[in-house]
Amino acid sequence: YVHLYGYVYRDEEEKMRKYRRNLELLEKELEENPADLKAYHQLSKQYFVVKDNDKIRACCERGLQVEREHPSRIWRLSILHNLIQSLFDEGKYEELLQKTEELFRTDPYTEISWLDFRYYAQLAAFNLKQYERSASHGTEYLKAYEKYRAGKLDKDMLLFGDHYYLKPQHREHMLRLTGWAFYRLDDSEKA
Question: Is the pLDDT reported for residue 158 higher than 80?
């Protein structure tokens, strides 16, 4: 067995010291190798711990820019996920919706990854009281979720991104929120 103690900590102070150490190491890695897409992903994850949304977004935007010129595109979804999560956490819902809706138009091959993005998009639209938009994203999430459950989506894509909203309780949450969105639109039949 291999025992890794780099992320074990006794208290909050030790935890933050280790995360700051990670930040320094990852920033140095990107100075030395600015095309290291995994480092952009990991660095943006570390910035979540210290709650620095500006750095999360800057790191993700830079990583996505590098990724467009990179022969390997496997880190794109992970970096995008961090960016979308950061925008949601900061309440930048319209920007989140623009980025996710652009993705849905331009990338028809990663539908399984859209589950998380649709989840965030529906919540963002609902929070903006844009119920039609919320209902649309909720409906699309539910369609993709059923394809996922039926084995009709490329599950290999799960290796290339972060995926949190694939569980039955997430589907139930989307069902409720989609129903509320339709109710707010006075469409009781769909609700």
Answer: no
